[in-house]
Amino acid sequence: MVFLAVLLFCGQGMAAGFVRCQLADGFDFPVGKPNSDGYYKSRGYWPNGHLGEDWNGKAGGDSDLGDPIYATARGVVVISENIGVGWGNCIIVRHAYRDETGKIAMVDSLYAHLHQRMVKVGQTVEKGQLVGTMGGNNGMYLVHLHFEMRKNLRIGMNRSQFARDNSNYYSPTDFINKHRVLPTSFQKYPIPLGIFAPYGRSLADARSDGGETAVKVPTLPSTQRNLPDTGPSADDEDFWSKLRTRLKQGKMTEGVDPPP
Questions:
Q1: For position 137, what pLDDT does the model report?
Q2: Phi, psi of 46, rounded to the nearest 5 degrees
Q3: Residues in contact with 146: Cβ distance below 8 Å, sequence separation at least 6, in sequence order
Q4: Would you kindly state where each structural domain of the chain is located, as residue ranges?
Q5: In whole angstroms, how far apart are CA 87 and each of 7, 64, 143, 212, 242?
Q6: How far apart are the C-alpha atoms of 71 and 108, rounded to whole Å?
Q7: What is the pTM of this model?
Q8: For the structural domain made of 8-249, what CATH number should be given?
Q9: Residue ranges of region Disordered (predicted)?
């Protein structure tokens, strides 16, 4: 059973915690699931420019208002709110997955300008689950989905504090196409919440030099990858204990080395 772990507080006083979730078993497109059928990219990703992709219905105009937006993969909702200004209704889902080297990594997917939000912070979602509907930020834009994939888990809604390049962001389509099917197991991992500042506020130790994601997660030996969900190992508990201590102290810059 997924549960919310003990609440903590990071450097800016924003509530933080952990929710246990299984690894993602693959990534699909957030519209026209699973392969974006009926939609097209009206604007693509490029570093130091547009940091995500804009997706529109092929019928054009605002014909796609209210169309379903789906979670790109299994994960935990870490932001779900109306940010206002140029963002409108936004959702960020955090995903843990096993990368090409067999190590566990995390990535954030962002869904912006939504007409409606269907999920809450701390909620676990499955790949292809409805999380919201397509909008245009209350008429500010033609209706579309702005979609991002972030390497750096601390960005949240404060993009100006971080390098606008491939050190912090993925090309969403490239990332999805490279991770369509992934190995998973019944084991659940603690997914951190609240490790970024609220919109418009600074994060005291935020790196803008393109450094690696602050949160590192332990890699399981290959012999443990298909074990039933019996909870974290002693090494895992030690790792997350150290991470919780650093969160309390506001020391997110260097992260915590995973157990060997």
A1: 92
A2: -150, 135
A3: 52, 53, 54, 110, 111, 112, 113
A4: 8-249
A5: 28, 18, 13, 25, 34
A6: 11
A7: 0.74
A8: 2.70.70.10
A9: 210-239
